[in-house]
Amino acid sequence: MEETISLQDLFKIIRKRLVHIISLTIIGALIAGVISFFLITPMYQASTQILVNKQAQEQQTIQSQDIQTNLQLINTYNVIIKSPAILSLVIEHLDLNLTPAQLSEKISVASQNDSQVVNVTVQDENPAIAVEIANTTAEVFKNEIPDLMSIKNGVHILSPAILSENPSPVKPNKMLNIAIGAVLGLMIGLGLAFLLEYLDTTIKTEEDVEEILDLPIIGLVSPIPDEQPISNPSRRGRGK
C-alpha cells in the first residue's frame, strides 16, 4: 500500500517541530553573520575609464569596417591591460609585493556595450591601494600601448579612480550572506523535521493503529486514574 502524506500532515509535522526549525534558521543566520563580519576580509573597489580610439589617418570619413576594426582593437586592448608587459611596470611603479599573475587576479577589464570605453576595475583589501593600482594601470597602458601595437593610437583617461572619504567595501555582502544562511538553516530544519518524523515509528494515536494494522478500531480503553476516590468513613457510620 502506498503511503501518501497530505498537505495537512505536512503542516502538522512543521508545527510539531517548529521550535527546531526556527532554532536552526536563527543558527544559520548567526553563523553567516559571524563569518561575514569577522572572518571574511573586506574588499574595496576602484575603477577608471579609458577611451581608446585609432586616430584617423588619410581618410576623413568613417567606414563601417573602421568601426569594426576599432571594436576588435578594444578586445585586444582588454587582454594587453592584464598582460605581464603592463602589470610588471605597474608593480615596479608602486613597489608592490605581487607577481603579475597575482595582480591580474585583482584587476578586471571590460568594455561598455562594445564601445571604445574600457573600464579598469581593481579590488583590494586597502581602498587606497586599489585606487593607486587602477590609476597606475591606466597610465602605464596609455604610455606603452603605442610601442606594443606599433601603431599610433589615442588613449585618453576619461575618469581616474578617486579615493572617497568613507569607502565602503563591495565584498562581502553581509546582509545577503545572512539571508542565505537563514535560508540554508530553514532548509536544514525542514529536512531534519521530516527525517525525524519518518524515523519515528512509535504509535501515538488511533490513526497510527489503523494505518499500521490496516484494520478499523472497534473500541477504546479509557485511561485508568492512578488514585481511586476514597469514600468518607464517617458517612458510612452514620448510615448504619
Automatic annotation (TrEMBL):
What are the subcellular locations of this protein?
Cell membrane
Q: Give UniProt keywords alphabetically.
A: Cell membrane, Membrane, Transmembrane, Transmembrane helix
Query: What Pfam families does this protein's entry cite?
Result: GNVR, Wzz
A GO CC term assigned to this protein in UniProt? plasma membrane
The residues covered by the Tyrosine-protein kinase G-rich domain are 152-195
Q: Where is the Polysaccharide chain length determinant N-terminal domain?
A: 3-93
Give the main location.
Answer: membrane
Q: Which domain of life is it from?
A: Bacteria
A GO term, aspect molecular function: protein tyrosine kinase activity
Give yes or no: UniProt keyword Transmembrane helix. Answer: yes
The residues that cross the membrane are: 21-44, 175-196
Q: Write down the membrane topology.
A: Multi-pass membrane protein
Q: Does the keyword Endoplasmic reticulum apply?
A: no
Q: Which family does it belong to?
A: Belongs to the CpsC/CapA family.
- The protein here is known as Capsular biosynthesis protein
